[in-house]
Amino acid sequence: MSDPISPTFEGDYLLTQQGPFKLFSGATLQPAQLHYSIYGKLNEKRSNGVLVCHALSGSARVADWWEPFFQHNAVFDLSRHCVIGINVLGSCYGSTGPQDTDPVSGKPFGHSFPLLSLRDWVRSQAILIEQLGIRRLHAVIGGSLGGMQALQWAIDYPDRVARAIAIGAAPLTAMGLALNHLQRSAIRTDANWNGGNYYDGAIPLSGLALARAIAMCSYKSAELFEERYARNPNRNGEHPELSMEDRYDIGGYLDYQGAIFTRRFDANSYLLITKAMDNFDPATGYRSESEALSRIQAKALMVGISSDWLFPAANIRALTVRMQEAGANADYVELESNHGHDGFLADLDRMAPIIRQALE
Question: Mean pLDDT throughout 56-82?
């Protein structure tokens, strides 16, 4: 196994040097810090910056979750591209979030951390990108929640983005909203939730694990689950036909995914980020969706995933048509994958040429 790819530079940027950071909700955040990673170097003109926006549970360390894209110049050629990752506000990988100290109370923000939106994330990123001396990004790329950010960038900062690549991203359907609601409810009903103020006591691990298990069902496809797990008993030798507690293999998989997730993520962050995901709508802050989409100047590529039922390919195709009708230079391509929504993370051999061609 090769060594993990480390950033060329990793650091923090304080957004609030000139005063509180005002959020779309009207609330303010002070202090507000962004954690970011850079792979490669900016060229003399600072025109080779590629911002890669992470999904719900991702981080600024792009190579931690898209490592194959850095190998053998599969997608990112670090002799030509400077890849930048920024952890969103509210997350738990270095940027200011609920686990940080509220300067007013002297305690962790917890559930009092203000509501966040896609527009807040993108505006904070734009401030940092400007501080790096980048006037115009070569591309903004992302999958799922990261794809929403790429679209928001193209709408809010049309003259600062040359290419926008959004994979498996569109406003959530009612089913998507329902699943996110259930995930947040699972966390809030945990006996250790304590109104989100759990940092000095027991953590709501069971609720967070259940939320992740529900999410995993929406990230995969029925076809993939059938192929991998079918009706097999759990592989550790359990007998679900003889015991109420024993599980089928799919149950063991979901429980495992939930358990390992609690080691690396925060429940309050999960609530904040899924709520921002719910609220994503290109029309937010504009008179209509058409007005918002008409602002796009970037060459946009919308990527649907054939087996994705959380963000159905048909919905992304329809959004692309609306972008075109609004005057945007937008194309649609479909990734053929049985991995469901997770295709942008799991089917990288098929994903790589799509992104590579769009970057060219």
Answer: 95
Q: Rounded to a whole number, what is the largest CA-CA distance in the chain?
A: 68
| Single-letter amino acid, residue 335 | L
C-alpha count within 13 angstroms, C-beta hemisphere, residue 308: 31
Residue 4's pLDDT band (cuts 50, 70, 90):
confident
CATH of 176-272, one of 3.40.50.1460, 1.10.1740.110, 1.10.10.10, 1.10.2020.10: 1.10.1740.110
pLDDT category at 204 given cuts 50, 70, 90 is very high
Over residues 230-274, the pLDDT tens digits come to 999 999 999 999 999 999 999 999 999 999 999 999 999 999 999
Question: Residue 65's closest CA among 142, 1, 148, 171?
Answer: 142
Label residue 73 by pLDDT band (50, 70, 90).
confident
Is the CB of residue 13 less than 8 Å from the CB of residue 86? no
CA distance linking residue 229 with residue 255, whole number of Å: 14
Show me where the domains of the chain are located: 9-171+281-359, 176-272
User: Whose structure tokens read 């075109």?
Assistant: 324
Q: Supply 216's token pair.
A: 């995993």
Closest CA to 280 of 155, 114, 149, 164: 149
The Cβ-side half-sphere exposure at 163, using a 13 Å CA radius, reads: 19
Tokens of 33: 């810090």
Active site residues: 144, 308, 341
Name the superfamily (CATH) of residues 9-171+281-359. Alpha/Beta hydrolase fold, catalytic domain (3.40.50.1820)
